[in-house]
Amino acid sequence: MTLHSHAAIQQWQRMELLVQQWLGERQQLLRMIFSLRTLVSSDRQRNPLPQRVQQFCQLLMDYISAGHFEIYRELAREARYTQCENQALIDSILRRLEASTDAALAFNDDFDTVKQVLALQNRLPQRLHSLMQKLEERFALEDQLIVSIHQRAEPVSQALH
What we know:
Elements: H1 3-41, H2 49-81, H3 87-111, H4 114-119, H5 124-149, H6 155-160
Helix pairs in contact: 1-2, 1-5, 2-3, 3-5
């Protein structure tokens, strides 16, 4: 195996670990949003709601930030390194992700503090529903981005041929 092939395998493995960790954060985010939706629809436990919404907002911002400032950049770098032929598709996906980013930022701006959650508590079920729709679209786009760049061909199989 050449030095170039070894470096490509190491880069791919590093990126694979990064993507898997990020997808783990996505699972956490999904569990939390479903838990929040249940909590919001239940009148018996309103007390922890503001704190749970704040925790969700923090996780949401962490997830969105990791996507924009780490994962997407690394995927774009990988696309350049592997001379990915889907650059127009990648650019389109990245542009389309902006709508869900804007929705996540707006949700965070509206519900980031206990005072805001209490003031807007009646709107929370609808806002969670709308945010979930945007996140579903985002997750599908992110999956498409990962598949079109990172999983299209593993360097290990390329190095063995």
